[in-house]
Each structure stands twice: as structure tokens, then as C-alpha cells.
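Hi D.,

Good news: the full-assembly prediction came through. Inputs first.
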Amino acid sequence: MFRNRLRSKRLWDRIVDAEEAARLITDGMTVGMSGFTRAGEAKAVPLALAERAMRDPLKITLMTGASLGHDLDSTLAQAHVIARRLPFQSDPILRNAINSGEVMFIDQHLSETVEFLRNGALAVDIAVVEATAITEDGGIVPTTSVGNSASFAILAPKVIVEINLSQPEGLEGLHDIYIPTRRPSREAIPVMAPDSRIGVPFIPIPAEKIAAIVVTQSSDSDSPVEAPDAETDLIASHLTEFLLREVRRGRLTERLLPLQAGIGTIANAVLHSFTEAPFHDLTMYSEVLQDSTFDLMDAGKLSFASGSSITLSTEKHRRVLAELEHYKRRLILRPQEISNHPEVIRRLGIIAINTALEFDIYGNVNSTHIGGTQMMNGIGGSGDFARNASMSIFVTKSLAKDGTISRVVPMVSHVDHTEHDVDILVTEIGLADLRGLAPRERAEIIIANCVHPIYREALRGYYRRALLRGGHTPHLIEEALAWHDSLRRTGKMLP
Amino acid sequence: MFRNRLRSKRLWDRIVDAEEAARLITDGMTVGMSGFTRAGEAKAVPLALAERAMRDPLKITLMTGASLGHDLDSTLAQAHVIARRLPFQSDPILRNAINSGEVMFIDQHLSETVEFLRNGALAVDIAVVEATAITEDGGIVPTTSVGNSASFAILAPKVIVEINLSQPEGLEGLHDIYIPTRRPSREAIPVMAPDSRIGVPFIPIPAEKIAAIVVTQSSDSDSPVEAPDAETDLIASHLTEFLLREVRRGRLTERLLPLQAGIGTIANAVLHSFTEAPFHDLTMYSEVLQDSTFDLMDAGKLSFASGSSITLSTEKHRRVLAELEHYKRRLILRPQEISNHPEVIRRLGIIAINTALEFDIYGNVNSTHIGGTQMMNGIGGSGDFARNASMSIFVTKSLAKDGTISRVVPMVSHVDHTEHDVDILVTEIGLADLRGLAPRERAEIIIANCVHPIYREALRGYYRRALLRGGHTPHLIEEALAWHDSLRRTGKMLP
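Then the structure:
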């Protein structure tokens, strides 16, 4: 069996244990690791690195695809290994280190990190990539994510590969590795539909760049999704009704357009709800394929899904990997540069569904910063999709923390998506279609349709008083962030 | 001569005066007019419409490419013709009507308006397009801009054409009209270099859609550019030095990458300064071609320029149109959807230079709203370029209004470009290269390099006090907009 996993015989002598491989990583290096939303990360080498750092301190810049599983970001942060981190994370301990200023975090659009590497603004010293197998010529077959692994391995002078025996051999053939050529003579990215195969099923690097190979056995972390609740059901039903109206008006067909859904419970619940809706022959062109992707396939609603990773709950993980052959012909995993590429997103006309942390009465969205200062996770791919989608939808519950927080505020405390990039807002209260509306019209409809009743009059009052001062986007600038200040001081947005 | 201008004989009987043509526009209609940054707008019909409205009130939604010349937006606003306006304007009287709430203004990325038309979220009832000529089959040859004219004419059921005899016949052949196919089966936009010709040199519509033809004679408005001053010279020299450093580090060649420069004095001055820099064989892939484009061609520095309009000072206008044949083989005018297309901008790796109204210590940029509420002009194409450029540069003078305003503030009062989309900031004080930096690092370098000395200690003090509270992006949320509030109350940002 292992012969299939490491098919280049001359690489057999590179097999070492994780500790030895980790010695290739030294203080001050920039390390590019596989892993995207807790799927397909290198598992043994980062652990060995953290253990070594407890005895013998070192600092690195850590780049990944997105978030890591197995609490690796926690472990590395606790060992004080991470000096800089990009482009995304979702780890509670690393988050604290970021917010305290110990770790410099660069919060990037997920499609852009490798552009910075390619044009020399950033550089990578070594790549650490989890693999299903290594081909005869040294090609790396990724596992449950592609992320930035291909560009890390291609651009780094040295590569450590973790062959993970717990990842099924059947993953081979699932991936489509395509790397854009250098600018200014770059060609078009030839993805014309979610099922376009444009590359090769492995990361093509010369075998001699593989400096160490570690054999591992532990499977991806569980990514439990909270069950839909009454509020996520309402959000889903507002959105389904809206999309059905668009179908009736002839603006969409019942196939809709290729779907993207951000990671998280609400987007997953919305997508899951389409199993009961009259849509059919749906496709996805997304970044993370969550449980709902496979629910939709099982329900006969989804004909194809393209993503950069597969991130599942324990139960779903077991089932999907066991029946991989059944799903495989309807799946592609791509580099995140391609899954999130503005060119492809605009071309396909994607319907993008992402989660807002808060939005304001004019439709600006904060996806990242609690109270305007504390980093939650990062912008991830939401900007890649929202800017270029044919329909950019943001969803959130109207309240948080037992109603002490309204997710709809006079002015967001941090902007990740400007009013120019936000078409539709949905809470459990209702939906606001902002397309073609000026700010004053946006405010009326957002306050009427999306705000929880306990905050509605306060927001309407703010807006009316701001109107007296005039302006294209009326605000009481001295009061615009007062709700956030009140929350900070009193624990409540309103008295 | 006129036979060359109207080559379809069966259209001769459509020639009417402007007043009669304007009668095709009725109350409540959405009208799509040509015109992009004061170039190539329909000139007679909107005037006739405004005159009629003084006697017989009517309201329309007015879409254009961008801003109009000949004070048409003033005239239409004064006649209360405009109920809604998109996607851009720069007119002082219309601006007041927008800020007072009389006119609903939809401030859009310039590449996106026609996507909304194509997917049915917006619709156009009639197009009014300035032409150099009409071909044998009814094809419309635009004049000094393309803007959204092609899609307006194609999507509207009726078209009014203004043949402008003052626009030289030699403009024919300059344009390249390409319209993307409908999604989801859209093809790649085949622009592979600034000089790629991918379409036809006229707007292809059936002759029978042309409902009226008006013959006009008045040339485009003058677009004076202020002469470079000591501060714009410093901005230009900081940027040139930076780009030369990038060349020395091997990240760019002396040909740089295709350039985009936003409209306005500072960007024009920066580009003009490249006539003296050691760059060569430059190209532009931009939206507006200003005086500096032709200065660079005359200096032998610029080998090709692609744009959506030519907007010049009187003197330059006379010279360029007189020597059109000389310049023509090095110029293309495209629909703004193509000049500003994310796909092409990302592919070519454009260096984008746009003007900020203000930016904050973390690199967020406000391009549109004075004091967070009053619309200036609109976002225009700055978002199309900044998001997808290989290098996104924003320039501004560090002070405004005799030093009562700092262009660098604790927190911008409105966000058009988020920190994720801003690579380089330049004022006359200096340049901040933000690539690969976390917010705290950005703050240090912006305060040190870009802020005027009279505001530097105040900003540094704000930042230091914010640091005590911690956070990925430290702010004193109750004080973040205090400079804007002070300006509103006292006319000065600081006492």
C-alpha cells in the first residue's frame, strides 16, 4: 500500500521523523503550510516545531491557505513560534496573541497572497504540505484541501511533505492544479464553468526540492456545524423566497447561478435549506465545501461543486470519505487563487452568500473586527466573492449576546465590504434588496426589514436626526459609533 | 462630407432637431447617455430636455458613463429633471441636489453598471449617444469616449444619436467595442495586453432602433489641469524613487507594468513626471486619458495607451485632434466595462494610481465623502483598479484648506477602499509601503512618513493611547471620528 503513496523510489531515503523534518525550519524563516479551514493541514511537523520551540525558542512567519485544524495555531501561538501570520486564522489563542500585539497578522483577500509572493513583495523559505501521495516524478497529490500549497511548494526552495495514510488514496484525481503565468504576459484563467478541469491532479515540482518526507496517520479535525435553529430557518426562508421572486421575474432560472457560501453555521443552514426548495441542477463555485454541499448532492439538487477544501462534521466526514468514488466525479478542489479568482467569479456570475459580523443602515459590512478593534478571524474569501459576484448577499442574525448587541448599527466600526459591494442583506427579521438604491433609500429599507424590533426605533431615530443635517449619507458623526462605545463601557449597545 | 457621417441612407429621414428628439424622453423614463469625464457626451438633446422641463416638468433616471461636460448635470439639476443619477458625477450643482436629498445618487464601481442592466436589476428605456458617424448598417461610431454607450444602445429599445460634426472623422477606427456574453456561459475577455483589439470599431445595433438623429457642432468642454506645484512634484518624486527601488530589487523592469491613473491634478502630475524618469516603453491601461498621456507619448516614454475617454485641456485638445493620425495607432478607446474590468486588471498586473480624499493610520481610504456625509464626486473606477492591481497606490496632499484639515486621520469617516486594497500611500511628506504589514506596523509607518508635521504628534498620541487598549486595529472608538466632528463644529480638525 505504501508503495502507492510514495511512487518516486529515489525519495525513499528522504523519509524522516517529524522532529528531524522540523529542524529544516529555523529562526526567522517564512514557512508556507498547507491547510484551509481545518482541512488538509500538515499535522506532525508544526507540532514538532512547537515542541522544539518550548526548549529552544524560535520565531517564524507562518503562511497557510486559511485556518488550521488540530488546534495547531493554538499550539504554535502558545509556544510563541508565530511572529507573523497570514492570510487567515480562526483560533481563539492565536486571536488573543494577535489582539495583544504579540503576533503581527496580515488579513488578506484569500486570492491575493500568492500574487504578493509571485511579485516579490513577500517570499517563502520552506513549504510544509500534507499529501495523499507523491507521484513517480515528485508531484505532490494534496489531501482534503489545496489552499496555497501549490504555490508555496513551487516558490519555496525546499519542501517538506507529510504523507498522511489516514487520507484515502481515492483523493487522488480530485484536485485540479493550475498556476497562472507571471504578469504582464498572463493568459486567461480557462475556468468556464464550475466543472472545468484546467490543470493537473498534482502539484508539479522537481523531486529534488523535496527535502524531507514524514509519514502521518491522524485524520482531519472534526468541524461540527451547529444545527439550524428557528432564526437560521427564517434567514434561509427569506432568501429562498427572494430567489424564487427573481426566478418568476425572469432574472434567474431555477438552476440559479453557481453558488458560493462562506464558512459557518448560518451560510451552511441557508444552503442546506435549498434541499427543500424548488431549485434544481445547482452548481457551486465556492471555497469551502461544508456538510450542506453533500446534503444538496444527496438530495439530487446539486450537480457539481468546486472548492478549495472539504471541511466536514465527523459523521459527514466518515460518510463522504467512505463513498468518495460516488462523489468524486462531481467535485473539484482547486488552489484558492483559482477558487476565489475575481476573473472567474465575475465570469460565472456567482451568487455569493457570506456572513456579516455587523452591518450599518447604509449597507457597509464589518466581517472581522469586534468593536472596531478586536480581530475575530479575518476577511477570508468574502471580499473576493462579494466584489465580483452577480449577487452579493450577506446574512446574520439581528441580535447577539442575548440582545445586548444589535448586528445592525448606525455606522459599522470597521469596514470590510463597502456599500458598493453589498446587494442583499438578510436577518431573521427580513431581507433588504439594496440594488439600485441610494443611501437614504437603503437606510429606510434596512431599518424596516432587517433590524430587530427592540432596536428599530433607536436606529430610526438616529437616521431621522441625521437627515436633518443632510448629506448623501446622513450621519451624526459625533454619535455614529456611540453604540460601540456604550457596549465597550457598559456591556450593552443601548441603556 | 456629411455623407460620410451618416452612411445609412434609410436613416436620413430620422434627422430631427434636438427638441423633437428630446420628446422621445418622457416622465419616469430611465435614460442612458454617452459621456465619460466630460468627453463625448450627448450635448443637444439633454439641453433641449432641460428647456422643456422648465415649462413642462418631468423626472428621469439618468445613467451615463461618468461625468458630463458643458455643465449639463448643472443644467439638468437646475431644471429638476434628474430624480436618480448613476454611476458618477462631478458637478457642483448636482452635488448639492444629491446632498440635500433631492436627487438619489447611486455611486457605483464604473465597471458594474452594465452588469446590473444585463441581469435585470436595472433597465434602460432609451439611449442618447454622441457619434462621429453612423455606418451603412446603423453602427454607431463613438467620439471621444465610449463609456457605457455601447451597452445603453444595445439594451435600450430606442436610440437617439447626436452626430457631432466638430468631432473629427479621424476618430473612426479608434474604438474597440466588445460586449461580454451573458452569464453563466460568458467567455474570457480576450484582452491580453493594452493594445489588444478584440471587438469592432463601432457599436453594432440594428439601424431600425435609431429613432432620431440630431446634428450638432459643439466640441467637448475644456478640462483644464492645474499645473504641478511643489507638493505634487514631491509626491511624484517619492513615487518615482520608490518605483526605481522596486526596479533595482528586480521586482519590476524599467517598463514597469501597465499604468492606470485616476482623473485629477495629482495623478496627472505624477504621470507627467515620468517624462523625466528613467522608465521607458511604458503602457497605460486606464480609464481616462488626460494631458499627461500625450506628454508621455511626446517624450517617447509611452508606447501605447488604452482608455475609455480622452479628456484634455483646450491646448492639448486642439493639438491631439489635429494630429490624430499620429497618435491613433497607439491608442484604443474601450467600453468602461472593459477598460475597468477586474479580469483584465488582475491579468495585466496594473500599477494603479488614484487620489484619496483622506486616509487613516491603518490605510483605509475615503474617496468620496467629505466629513463622512457629503458626496464629492463618487468612487468612479478607483475600486475596480485598486482591488485588482498588482500595486494599488493612493496619493494626496497631506493638508487641505490652509492646514485646517489633515488628509491623514485616526479613522476615515467613510470607507471606499479597505486596508486590504491599499498597498502604497504617498503625500508630499513621504511614502508608506504597506505591503505585508499588520495594522500596528502600518500605523507606525504612515504616521512617520505621510503625515504633515503639524498633525504628526496628535496622530501619534491618538495611536499610543489606543495601543493601551489593545486590539488588532487599536482605536479609541469614542474619539476615532472626533477630528471630523471638530471640523464640523469649529472649521478645524484640531483646536
